[in-house]
Amino acid sequence: MKISVFGTGYVGLVTGTCFADTGHEVICVDIDAEKIRLLSEGKCPIYEPGLEPMLQRNLESGRIRFSGDAVAAIRESLFIFIAVGTPPGEDGSADLTHVLTVARTIGAHMDAYKVIVVKSTVPVGTCDRVRATIREATAIDFDVVSNPEFLKEGTAVDDCMMPERIVVGTDNIRTAELMKALYAPFVRTGNPILTMDIRSSETTKYAANAMLATRISFMNEFANFCERVGADIESVRTGIGSDTRIGKRFIFAGAGYGGSCFPKDVKAVIQMARQAGFQMQVLEAVEAVNERQKALLAERAVAFFGGDLAGRKIAIWGLSFKPKTDDVREAPSLTVIRMLLAAGAEVVAHDPVAQDTARAVLGDRILYVHSNYEALQDADALLLLTEWNEYRYPDFERMKSLMRQPVIFDGRNLFNPMELHQLGFHYQGIGRLGGM
Ligand code: NAD
Questions:
Q1: Would the CATH topology of 205-292 be identical to that of 295-428?
Q2: What's the burial of 8, exposed, middle or buried (CB within 10 Å: 0-12/13-18/19+)?
Q3: Is 214 within 8 Å of 250 (Cβ atoms)?
């Protein structure tokens, strides 16, 4: 089948490449000419495990191509996916400028029946707006489908190729059948394609992210509780996680959630509810708890050194909002580093892949180094912010010999507090027994 995908970010690029890999013919469109140039040469502008070889394979076979020519892409395809960004506006509501721009372009240039698939995460009612926008420009028949994306950065290719479920929001059987045919190669193991009405589909995406963000803030709140009552969040986590009603996943305490989705989507739901005359009390608390948590490590470091970090060198391990991605959008590292700089610290950071994306945001106000040990040279403290596997089993003796003071604030609970104390470190995790 012929597909065009508008937007070659984390979602559009992975979706387009996976469709091509299952035999469909795909044109990916972006307004960013540099991205189109790189992608046409088989170079991935983002770090996502497994994506670049898949991209190159499909470029060579001719099943995928990249273009800035929106008109040709629209005319050549039956399915048009909208996978552009929906960043938060000033008030927290999702900014639909890009989505509606693509809708207007489709309306102006389509010359035959099309299925327009909204894959971006959009406020409830957006598919109706997309439909109205296209209808203003054309009398030709078309359908609009909601098809939210659930892939996770870091495992996006696997998530896309083997989705646990595919959600399709539609108001007619014709598009439901077309979407099932399109996605058939992805659900051969029997995972469901769930069809529902459009607004429920749009809401499902927000509810999923809001639920996951809630679990994280819930555990972070309990971590803070544990510290005050002398309990250990890691023991509590395993204690509750073995209850199948709760489950083991997404219950790790840490330095707060970040990324391009949870913060933005929680804010958007709060804002959508407000506009509908309703208050999302749980989600407002989820967001407030997360903001507090993101500041926690920096506050601890400042307090440990007596309220001032002038003349102190602080090492950071991990800049991305989670491992296996170079994405630093809304990452706790950004909050922490800005606070450390404001308190007068010199900051030296390491991340296996996110140094360039972090530099694009923070500039050269901090120093970026190529090895995690290099960051420790003469450091007064280490703040660990991303649980990259390569940070899990460091040489503690080497760390101690490099650091000016053996002080670790662990925002991801990677290390054992007892062991670190025995080794002579001042060590503090999140909600762990045996803080400093
Ligand atoms: P992104 O910012 O990485 O990429 C968006 C791309 O769209 C950019 O390359 C931009 O140049 C392009 N674009 C903007 N306007 C365009 C236009 N008129 N025509 C063609 N291209 C245009 O965004 P992303 O992270 O891929 O997210 C896209 C959407 O998917 C968002 O709504 C997001 O909430 C949702 N989503 C993201 C993830 C994730 O993990 N990143 C997961 C699920 C859903």
A1: yes
A2: buried
A3: no
**Per-domain boundaries in the chain:** 2-196, 205-292, 295-428
pLDDT digits over 403-435, tens only?
999 999 999 999 999 999 999 999 999 999 976
DSSP 46: S
Determine the residue of 10, 121, 325 to mutate for testing ligand 1's pocket, defined as the one with the most ligand atoms within 8 A of the Cβ atom.
10
- The CATH topology of domain 2-196 is Rossmann fold (3.40.50)
Cβ atoms of residues 202 and 123 within 8 Å: yes
Identify the residue whose tokens are 């997309």: 130
Determine the residue of 17, 30, 205 to mutate for testing ligand 1's pocket, defined as the one with the most ligand atoms within 8 A of the Cβ atom: 30
The CATH fold of domain 205-292: Rossmann fold (3.40.50)
- Ligand 1 pocket check for 102: Cβ under 6 Å: yes
Ligand 1 centre and the CA of 326: distance in Å? 15
In this prediction, residue 435 carries a pLDDT of 60
Residues labelled catalytic: 261
d(CA 397, CA 373): 11
- State in Å: Cα 98 to ligand 1 middle: 9
CA distance 42 to 37: 9
In CATH terms, the fold of domain 295-428 is Rossmann fold (3.40.50)
Please give the pLDDT value at position 61: 97
Question: Consecutive 10-residue runs of the chain (436 residues): their mean pLDDT?
Answer: 96 98 97 98 95 98 98 98 94 94 98 98 97 98 98 96 97 96 95 98 98 98 98 98 97 97 96 97 98 98 97 98 96 98 98 97 97 98 98 98 98 97 97 81
- Non-local (6+) Cβ contacts of 294 within 8 A are 255, 256, 258, 332, 335, 336
The whole-number pLDDT of residue 434 equals 77
Expressed in angstroms and rounded, the spacing between residue 376 Cα and the centre of ligand 1 is 36
Contact present, 195 and 168 (Cβ < 8 Å): yes
Index of the ligand 1 atom closest to the CA of residue 150:
43
Residue of 149, 209, 264 with the most ligand 1 atoms within 8 Å of its CB, for mutation:
149
DSSP string computed for 176-192: HHHHHHHHGGG-TT---
pTM of the model: 0.95
Atom in ligand 1 nearest the alpha carbon of residue 121: 32
CA 45–ligand 1 middle distance (angstroms):
13
Residue 31 beta carbon below 6 angstroms from any ligand 1 atom: yes
